[in-house]
Amino acid sequence: MLRWESCNDTAFSAASKIVNLKISALSYEKMLSDGAEPAHENPGKDKEELERLCSELLEVLEKMQQLQQKMEKLTSTFKGVWDLEAYQCSGGTPKPILFHTWPTMLFYETSLKMSEMYKKEICLKKTIVGEIAHTAEQDLLMVYLSCWLYQPYVESSIKVLLESMLLETGHRPL
């Protein structure tokens, strides 16, 4: 989650710069359409900067996708452990205690819930990356930026869930 947050912050910075470039370009176009004298502006430089920022945003999105895929693999591992435990303990054999209080099934369910949140968030971020540089409406640009920052599919309970998992595995002291 720390890596995700770091990537999200980096990408938000790039997305903010893209939005600022787009808004200034839209303002410049409006000023020209109103018949005002054009100030000395270099549209070629802005286009290069926009391309560089879009590339940076795509790179960070790729890192975020890799993190989400790791979460899916971890969820799959928990599912495998749960299935193995169910197979070995069928017929009345007591289940081994792997964690402090949580059964393996709860780890799988929690991991699945977290993975699904991030999967939805990645889909949203892909849409934003695909649209942000081509949007000509200032309000929509601001919505994209807000969605990137506030991550609507990542529930606030996720930090509590992660801390609970860390406590259960002994990675956080009680």
Give a topology summary.
Blueprint (H helix, E strand, L loop, with lengths): L1 H32 L9 H46 L15 H28 L6 H13 L7 H12 L5
Helix pairs in contact: 1-2, 1-4, 2-3
General description of the model:
The chain is elongated and about 85 Å long. The chain starts with a helix and ends in a 5-residue tail after the last helix. Helix 1 (2-33) packs antiparallel against helix 2 (43-88) and helix 1 packs antiparallel against helix 4 (138-150). It is built from 5 helices and no strands. By secondary structure, it is an all-alpha fold.
Q: What do the pLDDT scores average to?
A: 90
The geometry reads as elongated
The class by helix and strand makeup works out as mainly alpha
Radius of gyration: 23 Å
- The string of secondary-structure elements, in order, is HHHHH
Major beta sheet summary: none
Number of helices: 5
Number of DSSP strand runs? 0
Terminal residue distance: 21 Å
Multimerization state: single chain
In helices, the fraction of residues equals over 70%
Proportion of residues in β-strands: under 5%
Low-confidence stretches: none
